[in-house]
Write a structure and sequence with these properties.
Number of domains: 1
Strand content: under 5%
Helix content: over 70%
CATH topology: ABC transporter involved in vitamin B12 uptake, BtuC
CATH architecture: Orthogonal Bundle
CATH class: Mainly Alpha
Amino acid sequence: MDSNLAIQLSIQGILLGGIYGLIALGLSLIFGVMGVINFAHGQMMVMAMYVSYWIFVLLGLDPYLSLVIVAAVIFVLGYLIQASVVNRILDFPEAMQVLPLVSVGLILENLALLFWGPDHRSPQTALSLKTLWIGPIMIDVSRLIAFGLAILITILIFILLKKTTIGKRIRAAADNRTGAILVGINVDRIHNVAFALGAATTAAAGVLLLPLMPISPHMGHDFTLTAFIVVILGGMGNLIGALVGGLILGVAESVSTLFLPATLKHAVSFSILIIIMLFRPQGLLGGKK
């Protein structure tokens, strides 16, 4: 086995894993606060990718520069979805929570299909073909920037939740909904903000992925499954676990191409999922089983 190739793939896996962690962070945040699994997660991410793509096409603004704008747009979308749909189903049995969110995902997917068509689209940004060489190891500049921004956004989310007033209210609503209401917190509004924040985090991950892969309206399902695997791997509702799980999955998928065809990377992902579910269902950093 070529050691340089193994190092190359490991680095690529780490860089991609940081973005995986950011995707799962939004899903884990929503589940941790409300106990709801967002089955429209991947489709919201795809919508963010299309918004960023059209900003790039119409205004020439690089996806990395439009990240804040796109995150704000999807934040508003997430707030509206939570206020109009999710708040109404929070007390429903888990099986009944699935269908409304799956329906929201299908609506978003078909809206993308209506507005942008079924063809794959890929922006050619200024950094698309830039590479950085460290000895014999080649690193894509786009991947490196995306990884750095993903880690930065993750740190900012942690700071927001730990140090700000709105973050403390989100944590209070997650820990004890009734107690939060008794001390005067508008829990429905906090849920709206938490869901919107999770959506904006996912949108940021989509923008970071945009220069790395072509987009199509039907990609959302794959991203949703990837987020589920990462969240289960790290521990449901554990935000640090989401980042750790993303890094592990990214490296596993990348390094597995040394031994398996690249088309089997999803088999690797689901094999990891099955092993975790069998032997540590609470996740690597989860609490008690």
